[in-house]
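Record 1 of the preview.
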Amino acid sequence: MSTKNTQPSPLRLTAEQLAIINTTESRVLVEACPGSSKTYTLCAHTRRSIDRGTQPQHILTLSFSNAAVDVLTQRLPAGVKAQTFHAFGLDVVRRTVAKGSAMPALLTPKRSAELLLKALKASPDACRSVHKKTGIALKMRVECARLAAFFKQCNGSDEVAARLARDDAPDFAAYVDVLAELRVVRIAYDKLVKRAGCIDYPAMLRRACSMIDTVALPFTHLLVDEAQDMNAEQARLLAALARRVPHIMVFGDANQAVFGFAGGKMHDMRKVLGDVVTMRLTRSFRLTHENVALANAVLGGSERGMRGDRHGVTPSLVHCASAVDQEDAVVRRVKELITSGVPANHIAILGRTKAQVRLVEQALLAVGYETESGFSPRLPEHVDRTLDVLALVQTCIATAKAGRKPKRASRANRLGEIVGKTVKRKALDDCLRLLVKAARIPSFEGRYLMASRIYLRLAKAAGDIPENLAAELGRWQATSRRFTTVRPLRAHILNLREQTPVVTSTIHGAKGSEWAHVLVLGVTEGSIPFYREINKDEVDEERRVFYVAVTRAREQLHLFHAPFHHAPSRQSFAQPSQFLTRKVLEALSHE
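->
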């Protein structure tokens, strides 16, 4: 089963844990390896501080996600506050609002889009320059939405903006020569947001940093979790807090700093906090000695590497002839594990990219194993409606075979019933034409794909199109090849919904989680490390991504190498990953 920071508390505390729990040093950096019961140690140190006379309300714990804060809230002593950096920043900003003035409101996506359009209108020279250099008309709806996504990912950082634009992915590469102009737009946008009495996430941190010295803080103890994920603004806020809070303990693992693309990195704590005492948690209660040997080898065999908890099974490396062969090998391994009694949700399949994982999801679904992915939520009602469209295609085929004339009005009514909302006539006419095309397609898989296309058109016209809808419908393409009519396909899908699913995730999304068995896809040059990061000389961060992947398994790790063709970049990759060094290969069994 997937777990987040839930390693059981050890029956006997290690000397390292006891030292951290009992320390009275005022500035401490805890370097914590994966599975080292970091959260337990953090909470135990908090309880010891309370035992020594610190009031719970004088202790603050900061982390980087609501999920992590929820875990801390459940496990910390009552009265100790746990917040995200952004929530704490918003509290600081709101405490500086003059009496009788309105509190800043959290910016909604709709209001954000309105203010961005105003900012573009207020920056005509920047817009003209962008159009001249790139041909992009920023005021167009699609381009305005793309710019909003860019600003959101930049998080107010010029450094992150430059990095995103240097990436040769299609989303933001066109911005690389117009960053100065976009900065002008962003400054205008920030001013409008503030003038509107709103606040966005980057502003929560920036304004909190500038105001923190003006507010009273009740805290004498501060603990920070997952410090390797801090961006520059969060590090500045921590430095500002360090001027006010006497006792600070920071937990992190530089080897798991994998969000550099978003500005997250392990900052030098001496620059953030001043003099710090470094303490370590090097024993992993999650990992076996065999998995630890591999993880240490990935990092180059550091003398200060982590230690395992018990003996287990040697991690395996499966060499596959192709990407399709890799999918088949993964399906076989999942079948072997489940047949041997391993619960499906104790198995996780991790890939460097979503596209890579989705292909394996399709292969598993086709042979009868349900999957659950954190990056692509299930949308069963939309799948059912797509099957309803496919049934209508079957009806069209039957009508044509019987020589009967199709009833256009009844088909249009049925499409409206399926989507459940009013759809404009033009969209219905388009879908009716596609229905005719679908009925002429000879293969059931082809008809399923056309039914998916029809439903996507309907959902868009009805204003009910979740972000991942196309991907969710695409999950069932391979499965549709096994059927010739809708009824057995629908029964197959309904049966899968009753199953416990195998977990699928990107490696980044798996950080902080653990499973009994972990299958890592594409340990191939161009995949791990990813080709774009190789081109940007970010191989060190890719090594940390691989390290995160190999430290998720409680029992056995299964690695897969396969040559593949990357369609978006039109490149083919065949060589095993450069991270499969001699030391790494010595820690693996080979199949």
